[in-house]
What does this fold into?
Amino acid sequence: MMTPTTQLNKTEIVKLLSLDDFSSVYAEADEVRRKAVGDVVHLRAIIEFSNICKRQCIYCGLNRDNRQLQRFRMSPDKIVEVAAKAVAAGYRTIVLQSGEDDYFTAERLGNIVRDIKKLKVGDKLRMDEGDAPYITLSCGERNREELKSLREAGADRYLLKHETANTKLYESLHPCGTLENRLNCLKTIYDLGYETGSGFMIGLPGQTLEMIAEDLLLLKKLSCKMAGIGPFISNPKTMLARAPNGDPELARRAVAIARLLLPEANLPVTTSLSVLSGSMKNPFTGGANVIMKKVTPDEYKSAYEIYPADFARTDIEADRRNLEETIRSYGRQPL
Ligand code: 5AD
It folds into this structure.
């Protein structure tokens, strides 16, 4: 008998990633997705509330050594105001993302979380009308005490991508931290009862298929409920200005394998994958079931430049309606 796909090992994953024709794996991932999580596509509103960052990740435009970036920090009131608009437009999850910005202490961020939790998901058609929105934090590494107080403030989920599971590669990209700290932080996140989200990039300089297989297996080991997998995009304002972009097809393959390994997980079509995929017909084939939509105000949106990309102007209501319509046109159900 064949090994169940949830038990794929490293060698088997490498073999799948390097197939000439991957179409049967996409089909299987789609089937696993349908059986395990159905046809729903979850829409998340993401507020990128500060691009100030103390870290030096060499692939990321927000790294503290990038002097060519105009830095911003939204006020707590503004963040809650934008969250309220997103909730009114029908979003049930607010993702709060930022650089590692010390201004947003656990206390300040906790107050924002509490305020957003007072909002009510208002759409009459939704079963759980009157419930508070879910909150996902994506604000980098924090110590246990901070993570605990944020959890107590009401944060439901925490996204902290491991970026690469290979110690050497991790070190070459992060003069500011270690893989060990990253993984300890992810473990703490899990222990505190957050839904844990990790993820990684495809096409980092020096990355091999074996390393990608290890990234995928690590998601399982971390008991991830969410995993964001996206291609690396070279940012001309970073040390990796000359590195080639990651291969979006390889990223899609990795998402499909993540679906086989973690049938129940929430797997977004990452922004970087959308950026490099252009006008692909249906990005939700082959395993993905989540999309994050930027609700960041226009005045800040372009400064949240992790990598170069053109993002359309934000109209929270209209963007949401258009996205719902697009998802329905794929025969899937927006939520
Ligand atoms: N290309 C693609 N993704 C990137 N990220 C950071 N820099 C880049 C880049 N140059 C991703 C990381 C991070 C997330 C917020 O953005 O995975 O966790």
